[in-house]
Write a structure and sequence with these properties.
Length: about 200
């Protein structure tokens, strides 16, 4: 009996060391070498300051910025510590009321948009942290952003096209636009235009 206990204890310690320490450290080390940006959280820096992650959405509510999907996280939107959806079913009056309110706000903010409001601007995601929107959703917001920034809509559309990422390997997923990257590109474009105007 003691021999069986000793064998089990040795196996337990060995497997704990392998699966709890050796394997995680090996994976972390390989990731740091092969994919350093992703291993560090895909952080985005500006002027030496971290301003966000390409993997987690942010709350943009100013009219001159593109907006992502609504976030149901509490107590604040895009709260990574409280990732999750609202869990409201499609027949729940609270969900219907929330969608009606979002539609009213979007229509008021973007009266020049001719097409129907994309559903992803009205419904929150399951995680509440989506960093990306579809190119169609970005295009729907383009008139509002162009008007608020005083930019030609063609220039805003060109920025959307430049920031659109294709499906992985051309097969997996959908075309998408990272909201934070697109808004930073907008700031850069407007900053360059202002600089050229001063010259």
């Amino acid at each position: 009996m003691f021999a069986s206990f000793k064998s089990a204890a040795i196996l337990f310690v060995l497997l704990t060391a392998i699966t709890g320490f050796v394997y995680p450290l090996a994976v972390y080390g390989i990731a740091r070498v092969a994919f350093p940006q992703q291993a560090n959280g895909s952080l985005i820096e500006r002027d030496g300051h971290i301003i966000g992650s390409a993997l987690i959405g942010q709350n943009f509510d100013a009219p001159g910025y593109f907006q992502g999907r609504p976030s149901a996280t509490t107590p604040t939107p895009y709260n990574a510590l409280a990732s999750g959806g609202s869990n409201l079913g499609p027949s729940n009056p609270a969900l219907i009321d929330a969608m009606k309110q979002r539609i009213a706000v979007l229509r008021k903010a973007n009266p020049d948009a001719e097409k129907p409001i994309p559903s992803e601007l009205v419904t929150a995601s399951a995680s509440g942290l989506d960093p990306d929107i579809s190119p169609q959703t970005a295009q729907w917001q383009a008139p509002r952003v162009a008007r608020a920034r005083g930019l030609p809509q063609m220039q805003v559309q060109a920025l959307i096209d430049a920031q659109t990422q294709s499906p992985a390997l051309g097969l997996f997923g959908e075309a998408r636009v990272n909201v934070l990257a697109l808004n930073l590109a907008l700031d850069d474009a407007q900053g360059a235009a202002a600089h050229n105007a001063r010259r």
